[in-house]
Amino acid sequence: MTETSRVIVGVSDEVGDIALLRRAAEEARRQHAVLVPVLAWYPVGGEQLYRAHPCPELARDWERRACDQLDELVVDAIGPEEPVRVQPTVVRSETLRQAVESVAVRPGDVTFLPTPRAGVLARLGLRHHHNHGHGVALAS
Question: How are beta strands 89-92 and 34-42 bridged, if at all?
């Protein structure tokens, strides 16, 4: 039995990511593949702080919020167009690239990733972590 091909797309809540998700959905339809939108999340304050003060209940809540946010992004991006099989996936990871790489493990997986944005923080070697009032930090 052959595995179903997959189109894996890294998303966050940035405007350009919705367009990327739509392009990935078009590719999934074209290939008759499963669309796997991936959203990365990590504990507010980072993994090091979480390891020092773990709270599994809080981590489950952050993951649930990430799932809810990914569901909203998928509904907003795909809408009532031609159907496509969707398998939304949230991954606990500090970067979206790492999250997508952890999911794209099958031969033939096609991946879409947002183009890195080199802002002032990146040029200084610093990272900005988004916390959009949802109590969950989204990886960029």
Answer: parallel
